[in-house]
Amino acid sequence: MTLVPTLSTDLGLPVTGLGAGTPGRGRIVLVGAGPGARDLLTLRALRHLQEADVIFYDRLVEADVLDLARPGAERVFVGKHVGAHAWPQGQINAIIVAEARKGRRVVRLKSGDPGIFGRAGEELEVARAAGIPVELVPGITAASAAAAALGRSLTERGQSDTLVLTTGTGAADNPLPDCVRHAAPGTTIAFYMAVGQAPRITAGLLARGMPPGLEVQIAVEVEKSSQRLLRCPLGELATVLARNGVKGCALILATWPSQRPATTAGDTIDEERGSAPHLSQDPGQEGAMAQKVVA
Amino acid sequence: MTLVPTLSTDLGLPVTGLGAGTPGRGRIVLVGAGPGARDLLTLRALRHLQEADVIFYDRLVEADVLDLARPGAERVFVGKHVGAHAWPQGQINAIIVAEARKGRRVVRLKSGDPGIFGRAGEELEVARAAGIPVELVPGITAASAAAAALGRSLTERGQSDTLVLTTGTGAADNPLPDCVRHAAPGTTIAFYMAVGQAPRITAGLLARGMPPGLEVQIAVEVEKSSQRLLRCPLGELATVLARNGVKGCALILATWPSQRPATTAGDTIDEERGSAPHLSQDPGQEGAMAQKVVA
């Protein structure tokens, strides 16, 4: 018996908001759901789910996150699944305001942390323009979850004192992604939603002087049941992503250490990392350096 | 009645680890406690607190976080309070391994996210070297909590597509902190533990071309009962920190937008932000642009 099933099934919390809501108490709460597994929700996020009259939710990785909500809460999917109905941002903005104006307690449930690549700014703005109380509940962002799943730290005293979170995109007329200029010894870069940009990013990082043999780690669908963890030298990133069919929801981590001598092309990757409990050689990838999580 | 008191007082979870532990089941879990408020713990963190035989904890902002642990768990403070006993890192490394070797379930509870400026790397390394199973549980990092408290996003489509987390330190022989080179239009920088470095950081950012009138926000003791939120132009950062007696635990946020025209020295700060529910003019700071949270 663990806590999480208890919470989801029989906590017996008071039901505080039935029906159409009470004028004047309407509010909007942008809630970070974390990367997917429902036990990475915070207690604060849970409380808001249990107080909500209506929940507008993104592509939430593990569907049972919504089971934590108050049974009477209305649940509306507004996310972007492949092939599924997706709401334009303007329509989301309009409906959360309209619902709060009715006096309903609106939860806008977003993957990760709403403040990091979560487009929270637009929803905060429309709520404030409408005079509706709005609150943000932070969530575990994908870089933190990916590092934890990989069993590594994102910063390391004397080796990597700066962490850069970026999407790896840039102006179309720029031959290199804007983020490339952040690559330097002493820095860890976490690339969000950047799989499609991988060839361009790799070229940019190599042009910046990042060693092609440097280890890069990839957390695919982190904290979802489909989670996979891969690693390879920077120079093979695009190949490894393609060979493993990685698309969409993946986080790429690259640490360029400041102190230890940089590895160079052709160097063997430090295999000590492979002793981490989460990683092992992928038997389906003989000869490749990519590794997968053990199911 | 809210969920959190329920969890802390009468959940009645099974007590699974009394006494000296069972040989062979010893393990170490590095658990992120988030920024301070106990309702920003994740459900996973809570579960580990409730399964622990012994908990080694850092300076934890709200002491009642530990009330969430299993009543029978041993609690050992190893943090660095001003004037309080502090353990050297080597001693912490040694004792967590020794306790896990006895078969005890060790929780190492750290503020924020253990993977971001949390020295998780060293503890992971000693655990692995000793052959002890070790796991990381991510936590809400201070930048996410600060942004949520300030009611703002850390990224903004088209304005700030990259987020840099840094401590603002650098080699002693370098006149500028290493992080300064990350300052550029389109970037938000979050400075951790950088209050003492503020004059040096400000000089570096200004030298880099960041406009002195750009708004900087400061979250002091975020998500603790002593939380204060301040804002001021970049050029006044050091003065405002000193005037408000800000020391130690504060996060500084600076967004240099890529699209809108940069503000310049002497410009009035956009007062629209003041309409956020958390911020209001500080009556004790007439003439200053610093603002405080409303208690």
UniProtKB/TrEMBL annotation, chains A, B:
<keyword id="KW-0949">S-adenosyl-L-methionine</keyword>
<feature type="domain" description="Tetrapyrrole methylase">
    <location>
        <begin position="27"/>
        <end position="238"/>
    </location>
</feature>
<dbReference type="InterPro" id="IPR014777">
    <property type="entry name" value="4pyrrole_Mease_sub1"/>
</dbReference>
<comment type="pathway">
    <text>Porphyrin-containing compound metabolism; siroheme biosynthesis; precorrin-2 from uroporphyrinogen III: step 1/1.</text>
</comment>
<keyword id="KW-0627">Porphyrin biosynthesis</keyword>
<comment type="similarity">
    <text>Belongs to the precorrin methyltransferase family.</text>
</comment>
<dbReference type="InterPro" id="IPR006366">
    <property type="entry name" value="CobA/CysG_C"/>
</dbReference>
<feature type="region of interest" description="Disordered">
    <location>
        <begin position="261"/>
        <end position="295"/>
    </location>
</feature>
<keyword id="KW-0489">Methyltransferase</keyword>
<dbReference type="GO" id="GO:0019354">
    <property type="term" value="P:siroheme biosynthetic process"/>
</dbReference>
<dbReference type="InterPro" id="IPR014776">
    <property type="entry name" value="4pyrrole_Mease_sub2"/>
</dbReference>
<dbReference type="GO" id="GO:0032259">
    <property type="term" value="P:methylation"/>
</dbReference>
<dbReference type="GO" id="GO:0004851">
    <property type="term" value="F:uroporphyrin-III C-methyltransferase activity"/>
</dbReference>
<dbReference type="InterPro" id="IPR050161">
    <property type="entry name" value="Siro_Cobalamin_biosynth"/>
</dbReference>
<dbReference type="Pfam" id="PF00590">
    <property type="entry name" value="TP_methylase"/>
</dbReference>
<dbReference type="InterPro" id="IPR003043">
    <property type="entry name" value="Uropor_MeTrfase_CS"/>
</dbReference>
<dbReference type="InterPro" id="IPR000878">
    <property type="entry name" value="4pyrrol_Mease"/>
</dbReference>
<protein>
    <recommendedName>
        <fullName>uroporphyrinogen-III C-methyltransferase</fullName>
        <ecNumber>2.1.1.107</ecNumber>
    </recommendedName>
</protein>
<keyword id="KW-0808">Transferase</keyword>
<dbReference type="InterPro" id="IPR035996">
    <property type="entry name" value="4pyrrol_Methylase_sf"/>
</dbReference>
